[in-house]
Amino acid sequence: MKVRLEENAYGKNAVNLSKIIRHPGYHEFRQITVNVSLQGDFESAHTEGDNTKILPTDTQKNTVYALAKEHFTSAIEDFALHLAGHFITTQPQVSQATIDITEHVYSRMLFDGTEHPHAYIGGGSEKRTALIVQNAAGTTVNAGIKDLLILKTTDSGFEHYIKDRYTTLKETADRILATQCVASWNYNGLVTGYTQQFNDIRNTLLKTFAYHKSLSVQQTLFAMGQAVLEQYPSVKDISLKMPNKHHIPFNLEPFGMNNQNEIFIATDEPYGYITGTITRE
Amino acid sequence: MKVRLEENAYGKNAVNLSKIIRHPGYHEFRQITVNVSLQGDFESAHTEGDNTKILPTDTQKNTVYALAKEHFTSAIEDFALHLAGHFITTQPQVSQATIDITEHVYSRMLFDGTEHPHAYIGGGSEKRTALIVQNAAGTTVNAGIKDLLILKTTDSGFEHYIKDRYTTLKETADRILATQCVASWNYNGLVTGYTQQFNDIRNTLLKTFAYHKSLSVQQTLFAMGQAVLEQYPSVKDISLKMPNKHHIPFNLEPFGMNNQNEIFIATDEPYGYITGTITRE
Amino acid sequence: MKVRLEENAYGKNAVNLSKIIRHPGYHEFRQITVNVSLQGDFESAHTEGDNTKILPTDTQKNTVYALAKEHFTSAIEDFALHLAGHFITTQPQVSQATIDITEHVYSRMLFDGTEHPHAYIGGGSEKRTALIVQNAAGTTVNAGIKDLLILKTTDSGFEHYIKDRYTTLKETADRILATQCVASWNYNGLVTGYTQQFNDIRNTLLKTFAYHKSLSVQQTLFAMGQAVLEQYPSVKDISLKMPNKHHIPFNLEPFGMNNQNEIFIATDEPYGYITGTITRE
Amino acid sequence: MKVRLEENAYGKNAVNLSKIIRHPGYHEFRQITVNVSLQGDFESAHTEGDNTKILPTDTQKNTVYALAKEHFTSAIEDFALHLAGHFITTQPQVSQATIDITEHVYSRMLFDGTEHPHAYIGGGSEKRTALIVQNAAGTTVNAGIKDLLILKTTDSGFEHYIKDRYTTLKETADRILATQCVASWNYNGLVTGYTQQFNDIRNTLLKTFAYHKSLSVQQTLFAMGQAVLEQYPSVKDISLKMPNKHHIPFNLEPFGMNNQNEIFIATDEPYGYITGTITRE
After folding, report:
1. How far is C246 from chain D (nearest CA, A)?
2. Which contiguous run of DSSP H or E holds residue C178?
3. Which of A177, A277, A195 is nearest to A228 (CA)?
4. What confidence score (pLDDT) does residue B190 get?
5. Average pLDDT of the segment spanning C157-183
6. Does C109 contact chain D (CB < 8 Å)?
7. Which residues of A are catalytic?
8. What is the pLDDT, as a whole number, of residue B1?
9. Which of this chain's residues are annotated to bind urate (chains A, B, C, D) (predicted)?
């Protein structure tokens, strides 16, 4: 019986790299996690154990550190583009290179309104992401934000849904809406100023979330995507993943008390999970 | 400017359910995590906040618990098939239902060679998985195993790979090979005896890993997939994800000692990540 | 043979509670995790299965939610004091109540310099903590900060340490210093304005970390504690835990490049772990 | 104002080490995580930045790998004792050395009843632990087991507890009892055959858990500790930590169904947490 290799890829994941970029008067501190993934003509490695077309993942890791010295100087999109180009142009057997970078955000400490030149606070769940795919058909640039924990205490409800035999949920016109949002968007070709674009789009996402009168997570998700598409012609489409971080009113009636939408159980599991992609007509 | 909703889905994730199935003489204890995801005609929820076609994720959760009483009696594939069918047949606006179940394995305690009737040990990283997708085109049954931590201390090497400017890795004919393997396979239609099939396929995967003379992770991955396809005609294709859990020889030379392939640093990050799908010709 | 019960305790952990406190013009959103632990006369529960002196952990949980309505209105220290007092005064068999609260920090979103009235960002690793122990001897108030990820790119070195047979570390006068700091301090009795004190002490910790010319983690740790004790007479002693989040210069020499203290591997494991308590003479 | 350094310690944590021990006919694979912590005369490092009495944590790490070659050949208690002795005897400024080792369990794969000579399965949550403290007063040997997930589906109830205003829990004579148990015991001095002792004590813990008619977690905890003390004169005292992994009957009544103690929600948070130490009279 004959079998054959279909889709396959290999690479190095979780390459954790920090860089100090020294500017006059202050240091810029950057911390990223890089995943490299290569596709191409690797069949003989699988079927015959022939490694002559395999660039070891250890070498991929070394390459990330080495190229960071000259080429990681601005946005993660720029560095990811350089890395993808490096693997595609130096390795003829590679037909597609995927570079996925997550940036861990550090902010300079603020004392009396002034930023300290070289001391930072990090640790936020929110991360910036870039995903570059380069192959013969071209290069796609995907940018995004991950694990952005946002919450609103009102202007959110959920009513008029289907009721069936298994329904116990009560309708509410006023609930907490919270999500650990993932948003990622494809650009129409290359862009100048990825960081500015990122900051602007992030602000639009937050503002739309904050001011939207939400009738459902779905509606808020769509509004957030729509706002980005309407304001940024550079964006081709946007995908959002919005797990519902439920805050359930705690029942105080057994204790003769009235919970006026003020005391909640915050739960992690189970969670509603709403995803969608918004694109141009 | 016009925008439109593309791909979208919603559902309840991480529904953690335990069941006691009482047999004469002993209890069977089962613990699963269920994810439900629905696709269909939900555009008005996104664009107008119209929830009349939305079956709340809370109701989905209730449905999982309620249907488990009658219908979670054997393999997770069977229960997932029932759940998918329930949502498709009772919700006309749903065009596709995806049920993803992870089973946490518990074994009855063994004392003097005899299984205790109702006491168990759990906690293994290894989990059994089932993924059912049902839509107008039919139903696919995907089964698998997740986070299976396997390791061999010899019969594994990595040599004759590409060397370039950034190569520092040394070739070796004898190394530790370890991976936290994910394997999942599609069946050709429905199968009777999912648990027997699962156990047999799991054994074939382990045996192939153990006895293979590995020249690379890629080669071992392919051999594992090939063995399954060759032995189980019910399997249409199989995908494997094999992160390389590196065990790097610790350099003892600075201390005047010789590390004869015996002392290793076990690292989690960065890690090589090798994936592939094997199918029939 | 006789055995006896020594130290023992029980309680409910991980009670996740959110509260909306409605102020004119804006909402205050608070999220906390509460651990309750009780010690006392519980021997008969252990030795005889007599539960008549056991207040179930489920009831402890309910009590936390119920009392939050009236009594969680300001600092977590105040709420923890109320909870401890509740258990001590209503349960005569309880000799000691320990309440441990972790607060997850949420900030109101900022648009054009103005805080939104009811939309928030959360997700920071940094958390505020309170630990109250109440027994016949009195009540101790411990406050703190947890998982505060701080980093400086210079003004840190490590030299002149012991060298032995197993030394390979190179001395450096200029390295990255990073830690995910835990700091907690005991107050001399009760304090008015726990939140103001917390904010001030936090600022002192950050400032000392930022401006200290560090010769070792130990020296920085001591300086941070010393600064707090010198500036806040209300503080009796302070303990710091400073895991060293190593950023190791990546060796670029094999590639003919010179790493001028700019490219680093960020590692999580293994890590140096430095702890100390500073007190008054 | 004068401040002084009180308790302090430093060391290297999370030193992940693997070892292959080659026996005739098969390989033994061992994987451990080592924490080293030193106390002693380190005041000048804190107050003056004088590192001349500091053995760097990097050197501690190297020492663990180097000494593993000759001295990690049997139980983790033996290796930990050797490491503690090394630091105490070679570093006069060190007054106390604490070595904490966690062993990750790997089992040889079993095919047709025969163990494969060099292929293993790992991944269990259950881990074996050793904690050695050596100082001028002597050496204590603490052994244990961590994250042992055990569960019984009957022979467990919880009744006759205190009811107050905040009680909603229903009494039950038949519930699931599950815990991710931590057990650790001090030996009376040194022991020969730590692994045999460990295996025997582990078996006693499991057996007592399985056969005990439990009226509360407290009672089961005490019974488990008592059984160990009664059967193993080498054990001085034993501590158990038993988080209650609740399995709560799901209420099917709203759906016109009757949950006959068969369908449960498995929850991680909040959880009851019961701890106790049992010692000899």
Report:
1. 10
2. strand C177-187
3. A277
4. 86
5. 98
6. no
7. 12, 57, 246
8. 66
9. 57-58, 158, 175, 217-218, 244
Q: What is the pLDDT, as a whole number, of residue D80?
A: 98
**B58 interaction partners in chain A (CB closer than 8 Å):** 167-169, 272
CB-based contact D184:D198 (threshold 8 Å): no
What do you get for the CA distance between the two ends of chain C, in Å? 47
pLDDT band at residue C1 under the 50/70/90 scheme: low
Closest CA to C82 of C141, C19, C137: C141
- C255 to chain B, any CB pair closer than 8 A? The answer is yes
C278 neighbors C238 (Cβ within 8 angstroms):
yes
Please say if the pLDDT value at position B153 is more than 70. yes
- Using an 8 Å CB-CB cutoff, list chain B residues near A6: 237, 276-279
Q: Which of A136, A169, A197 is the last residue of a domain?
A: A136
Q: What percent of chain C has pLDDT over 90?
A: 98
pLDDT of residue A49: 97
Residues of D in contact with A166 (CB under 8 A): 255
Quick one: pLDDT at residue D233?
97
For residues A131 and A148, membership in a common domain is answered with no
- pLDDT, tens digit, for every residue of B218-273? 999 999 999 999 999 999 999 999 999 999 999 999 999 999 999 999 999 999 99
For residues B111 and B83, the answer to whether their CB atoms sit within 8 Å is no
Burial A59-87, CB ≥16 within 10 A → b, else e? bbbbbbbbbbbeebeebbbbbbbbbbbbb
Q: How far is C117 from chain D (nearest CA, A)?
A: 31
Q: Which residues of B are catalytic?
A: 12, 57, 246
Q: So what's the pLDDT on residue D50?
A: 97
User: Are B152 and B281 in the same domain?
Assistant: yes
Q: How far does chain A reach from its first CA to its final CA, in angstroms? A: 47
Range of the domain at D251: 144-281
Residue pairs between chains B and C whose CB atoms are closer than 8 Å: 10
C241 is catalytic: no
B197 in a structural domain: yes
Which chain A residue's Cα is nearest to B8? A276
Residue B178 lies in a domain: yes
If you average pLDDT over residues D89-96, what whole number do you get?
98
Q: Contact, A245 vs A178, CB < 8 A?
A: yes
Taking an 8 Å cut-off on Cβ atoms, the answer to whether A166 and D268 are in contact is no
Closest C-alpha to D187, from D276, D102, D81, D103: D81
Task: Name the residue among B259, B272, B264 with its Cα closest to residue B161.
Answer: B272
In a domain, B1, yes or no: no
A258 touching D, CB under 8 A?
no
pLDDT confidence of A190, banded at 50, 70, 90? confident
Asked if residue C279 and residue C210 are part of one domain, the reply reads yes
Residues B179 and B278 grouped into a single domain: yes
Look at residue B79 in the predicted model and tell me its pLDDT: 98
Residue of B nearest to A66 (CA): B166
Tell me the shortest Cα–Cα distance from C27 to chain D, in angstroms.
Answer: 26
Contacts of C256 in chain B (CB under 8 A): 165
Q: Are C45 and C54 in contact (CB under 8 A)?
A: yes
Tens digit of pLDDT for each residue in D211-223?
Answer: 999 999 999 999 9
Task: Decide if D47 is catalytic.
Answer: no
Q: Chains B and D: how many Cβ contacts under 8 Å?
A: 174
- Say whether residue A151 is in contact with chain C using an 8 A CB cutoff: yes
Tell me the ipTM for this assembly: 0.96
The three-class DSSP label of residue C53 is coil
Q: pLDDT tens digits for C89-105? A: 999 999 999 999 999 99
CATH of the domain at C239: 3.10.270.10
Beta-bridged to residue A132, according to DSSP, are: A99, A141
pLDDT digits (tens, 9 = 90+) for B128-142: 999 999 999 999 999
pTM: 0.97
Nearest CA in chain B to C251: B168
Give the number of domains in chain C. 2
Confidence of residue D117 (pLDDT cuts 50, 70, 90): very high
